[in-house]
């Protein structure tokens, strides 16, 4: 499968896609629908089960990662939700600096087609977006932490004239530059900003949290890990699932691969980063090698 050559330990289009897919899968969960006993969404992998879901307009751009993951539940005899949400946490850790998020497995098959009209738009207002995330079960603080995933994100459909532009000046690194790049008056060259992200950076109800992550990777790591874990289990109770976090690879600590410039500001050094990637991602980078019993396959580099 061609995708495996991109899917073994490096930050790129498929890892970005996997993180966004994990959100779009879980982001159709609604406490309101649950209270009414109506068909609901969940972190259930419905994208890999209902071929129509990825065709919805709000899911534009998720076709490649969905196609890559769709055969895996049957191939490995596990549920779509486990495959899709595991891909999301692997997508985070594939990017240098990405934290190790707890992994839970054992989700049953999806119950129904995901409800429509629940995913956020970059043109929604702050109250609408915080309200929608509250209906998923997130505090506004969780939402601001989760938004940092836009630090390794690109846009293709919001403004096609700027397709491929990223929301952060260091798109291949899981860092906090997104929070600064979104807050400053003028974005760095090549950085595309969503109106909703800019609104969060300046709205009285969210700006303190947003600015609190500027130059503060440790706090963001901690808050992001907790919020992503909640996202990856929306609609489930972890007491019904099994924790298999020990199978996750190590995170690449950015302070170990960074060097100070003349002003003392740390920058990731490409040589150190590649050496760390070779060390910490060796089992993924080597074809035919598996981590702790996770089944792997030989990458086809055609
Ligand atoms: C207010 C909430 C959010 C809004 C309005 C929003 C909106 C968007 C939009 C419009 C795109 C670009 C799609 C395109 O044009 O290609 C995007 C990309 C992305 N989003 Fe979000 N998003 C939100 C929250 C999240 C969350 C919670 C996560 C994950 C934790 C996330 C992860 C991503 C990623 C990784 C991408 C990049 C995908 C790629 O490069 O292929 N987003 N988001």
UniProtKB/TrEMBL annotation:
<feature type="active site" description="Proton acceptor">
    <location>
        <position position="24"/>
    </location>
</feature>
<dbReference type="Pfam" id="PF00141">
    <property type="entry name" value="peroxidase"/>
</dbReference>
<feature type="disulfide bond">
    <location>
        <begin position="11"/>
        <end position="95"/>
    </location>
</feature>
<keyword id="KW-1015">Disulfide bond</keyword>
<feature type="site" description="Transition state stabilizer">
    <location>
        <position position="20"/>
    </location>
</feature>
<feature type="binding site">
    <location>
        <position position="46"/>
    </location>
    <ligand>
        <name>Ca(2+) 1</name>
    </ligand>
</feature>
<feature type="binding site">
    <location>
        <position position="170"/>
    </location>
    <ligand>
        <name>Ca(2+) 2</name>
    </ligand>
</feature>
<keyword id="KW-0964">Secreted</keyword>
<feature type="binding site">
    <location>
        <position position="25"/>
    </location>
    <ligand>
        <name>Ca(2+) 1</name>
    </ligand>
</feature>
<feature type="domain" description="Plant heme peroxidase family profile">
    <location>
        <begin position="19"/>
        <end position="150"/>
    </location>
</feature>
<feature type="binding site" description="axial binding residue">
    <location>
        <position position="150"/>
    </location>
    <ligand>
        <name>heme b</name>
    </ligand>
</feature>
<dbReference type="InterPro" id="IPR002016">
    <property type="entry name" value="Haem_peroxidase"/>
</dbReference>
<dbReference type="GO" id="GO:0004601">
    <property type="term" value="F:peroxidase activity"/>
</dbReference>
<feature type="binding site">
    <location>
        <position position="175"/>
    </location>
    <ligand>
        <name>Ca(2+) 2</name>
    </ligand>
</feature>
<keyword id="KW-0106">Calcium</keyword>
<keyword id="KW-0325">Glycoprotein</keyword>
<dbReference type="InterPro" id="IPR001621">
    <property type="entry name" value="Ligninase"/>
</dbReference>
<protein>
    <recommendedName>
        <fullName>Peroxidase</fullName>
        <ecNumber>1.11.1.-</ecNumber>
    </recommendedName>
</protein>
<dbReference type="InterPro" id="IPR019794">
    <property type="entry name" value="Peroxidases_AS"/>
</dbReference>
<dbReference type="GO" id="GO:0042744">
    <property type="term" value="P:hydrogen peroxide catabolic process"/>
</dbReference>
<keyword id="KW-0349">Heme</keyword>
<keyword id="KW-0408">Iron</keyword>
<dbReference type="GO" id="GO:0020037">
    <property type="term" value="F:heme binding"/>
</dbReference>
<keyword id="KW-0575">Peroxidase</keyword>
<feature type="binding site">
    <location>
        <position position="44"/>
    </location>
    <ligand>
        <name>Ca(2+) 1</name>
    </ligand>
</feature>
<comment type="similarity">
    <text>Belongs to the peroxidase family. Ligninase subfamily.</text>
</comment>
<keyword id="KW-0479">Metal-binding</keyword>
<keyword id="KW-0560">Oxidoreductase</keyword>
<dbReference type="GO" id="GO:0046872">
    <property type="term" value="F:metal ion binding"/>
</dbReference>
<dbReference type="GO" id="GO:0034599">
    <property type="term" value="P:cellular response to oxidative stress"/>
</dbReference>
<dbReference type="InterPro" id="IPR010255">
    <property type="entry name" value="Haem_peroxidase_sf"/>
</dbReference>
<dbReference type="GO" id="GO:0000302">
    <property type="term" value="P:response to reactive oxygen species"/>
</dbReference>
<dbReference type="InterPro" id="IPR044831">
    <property type="entry name" value="Ccp1-like"/>
</dbReference>
<feature type="binding site">
    <location>
        <position position="168"/>
    </location>
    <ligand>
        <name>Ca(2+) 2</name>
    </ligand>
</feature>
């Amino acid at each position: 499968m061609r995708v495996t050559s991109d899917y073994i330990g490096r930050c790129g289009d498929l890892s970005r896609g996997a993180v966004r897919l994990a959100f779009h899968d879980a982001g159709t969960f609604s406490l309101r629908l649950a209270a009414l006993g109506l068909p609901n969404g969940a972190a259930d992998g419905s994208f890999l089960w209902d071929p129509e879901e990825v065709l919805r307009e709000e899911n534009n751009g998720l076709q490649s990662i969905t196609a890559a993951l769709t055969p895996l539940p049957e191939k490995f005899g596990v549920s779509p939700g486990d495959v899709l949400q595991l891909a999301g946490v692997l997508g985070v850790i594939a990017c240098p600096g990405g934290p190790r998020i707890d992994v839970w497995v054992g989700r049953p098959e999806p119950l129904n087609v995901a409800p429509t009209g629940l995913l956020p738009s970059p043109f929604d207002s702050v109250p609408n977006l915080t309200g929608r995330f509250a209906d998923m079960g997130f505090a506004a603080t969780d939402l601001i932490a989760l938004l940092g995933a836009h630090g390794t994100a690109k846009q293709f459909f919001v403004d096609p004239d700027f397709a491929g532009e990223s929301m952060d000046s260091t798109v291949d690194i899981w860092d906090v530059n997104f929070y600064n790049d979104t807050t400053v008056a003028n974005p760095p060259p090549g950085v595309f900003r969503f109106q909703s992200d800019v609104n969060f950076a300046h709205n009285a109800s969210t700006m303190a949290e947003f600015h609190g992550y500027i130059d503060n990777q440790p706090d963001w790591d901690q808050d992001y890990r907790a919020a992503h874990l909640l996202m990856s289990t929306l609609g489930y109770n972890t007491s019904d699932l099994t924790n298999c976090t020990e199978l996750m690879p190590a995170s690449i600590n950015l302070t170990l691969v960074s060097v100070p410039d003349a002003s003392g500001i740390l920058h990731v050094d490409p040589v150190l980063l590649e050496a760390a990637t070779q060390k910490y991602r060796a089992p993924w980078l080597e074809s035919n090698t598996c981590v702790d019993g996770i089944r792997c396959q030989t990458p086809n580099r055609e």
